[in-house]
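@here heads up, posting the sequence + SMILES for the magnesium ion run so it's all in one place. Ping me if the SMILES looks off, I pulled it from an old spreadsheet.
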Amino acid sequence: MNAVTLNNLSKIYPDGKKAVDSVTISLEPGEVFGFLGPNGAGKTTTVKLLNGMLSPTDGSCSVFGIEPCKSPEKTHAISGVVTEHAQMYDTLTGLENLIFYGTIFGLSPAESKKRAESLLAQLELSEARDKKLGAYSTGMRQRLSLARALIHNPRLLFLDEPTSGLDPESAQNVHLLIRGLAQEKGITVFLCTHQLRYAQEICTRYGLMSEGRLIASGTLEELRGRIGAGMRVRIRTCPAGTASGILEENIASEEEIPQLVRRLTENGKSIYEVSTQAPSLEDIYFALTAAPETSQKNS
Amino acid sequence: MNKEMLAIIKKDIRGITANRRMMISLLVVPIVLTVFLPTVFILTTYLMPTEVAELQKLLTFLPENQQAQNINDALAGLLLNYFLPLFFLIIPVMASSVMAASSFVGEKEKHTLETLLYAPLSLRQIFRAKVFAAFLLSMFVSFLSFSIMLIVLETEVTLTSGSFILPGIQWLFIMLLVSPAISLIAVTLIVRTSARAQSMEDAQQGAVFLLLPILMLLAGQFTGVMLISPLALLGIGAVCCCIAAVLLRQCMGRFTYEMLL
Ligand SMILES: Nc1ncnc2c1ncn2[C@@H]1O[C@H](COP(=O)(O)OP(=O)(O)OP(=O)(O)O)[C@@H](O)[C@H]1O
Ligand SMILES: [Mg+2]
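bot reply: prediction finished. Complex structure tokens:
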């Protein structure tokens, strides 16, 4: 069974704004799906649709076979959600907050406490556990939200910009945690993010949204194929330290490298270094979002 | 009522009791109504007996058997058994409006509502938990005011006239039936309007518009009813209970997450 299925999903807000426009995606269990796109692309709206907070205008979606618009409680029981607007109670301490959410997710108070303590330790919040949430910094709140989303051992995580506001070190820790959860526990992760560098490290597949439409999706390799350039080769024809004499070229496949090198040596150049670099997720993102017309023609 | 809902109820109640400003605003009006006003009344009748003669007219409203020998005692009895019960229709409604108004909007304003909605509870269950939290607390305020009122009043009467006035049977119906039922109706209606409101001011204004006419109507009607018979109170209480039950059952059916956020 698919972990997440979106089938021609569309959402038009009451004010007429078409935020999600016939999006079709399906995710296998255990995938870490990076949902990317510029501001206003419709990522958060999609997450809300998948949690039943909004009901689709057209099309459908399901989470492990359950339709969130029909039985939201059931999808909530198996998913954990972190979004910017899902805050906790300022008047309670970190630990009290987690215990409260544990209890409403059906854990016994003792279980909640145990689970909360281990999550607090995992997210490096043990020292702040008895501080009121009001005294937490943005990054600490964000990490506590992640702990809250994990309290009931969900099979699926919806993370809407979980690392916005985190310092680089915490952001890295959170990303490693997410990857660990997917690899060790087989949790499916639906990750909306603007941090492409981290996304490239932890996601197994990507979907790129723009103005409500899914303009590209697939693994990094597939996306690289989509933008044409297979890889970028960099050839240095001068000793290290001298700047002139670096050649960079886009090539379709590795097979072109020997040819390129031969051509250069025949022209009397000395080769000091040849390196290849596949386009990063960031390169792909810019290539695809810059020219949405051409990419739509391709699809 | 499952343990998840109990957790929400507990959290909501704690949220209010831990907030000193909220508690004070909850308790001030009831104390003024049930302790301050009666005290002024008792002291006036005691210290200014000439004025009492004017009040004697009031006593003609009383049933024959209730007419006491002593005018002061009779007036105190009138106060306790026919006038003060009215306040116990108003108090729980006011108390619950303070809390109920904060229940959904309060969470919305603090951005905690969305988190709560992600819980594996239906909207109906969350709604009921919020209604019960507001209801329980308003009953607490109501019983607390009742106890303080009774203690203060009896002490004052004993000190001024040396006698003791007996609370009538109507108190039983008021405190255990009519007042809870009216409170439940108010809470349900207010929580419902509060769910739609975007800010706390909106919700409280909505609550006032909803409550004022009800209160006026009630105050007008009940003075009469109370003089007729305590049994009529029992009937009214039962009717109110039924209305409350129906409201509670029907109320949340039409709500969707989309309307709340
Ligand atoms: N409640 C709403 N009513 C009307 N329009 C809305 C509402 N919420 C979002 N929109 C619009 O829908 C579009 C998609 O918004 P959404 O929040 O899904 O974007 P996003 O991809 O999450 O953006 P960001 O990266 O900034 O978080 C935007 O144009 C936004 O203005
Ligand atoms: Mg967003």
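MO: Residues 3-260 of chain B form one domain.
MO: One more: The pocket of adenosine-5'-triphosphate (ligand 1) is lined by residues A 13, 15, 17, 19, 37, 39-45 (CB under 6 Å).
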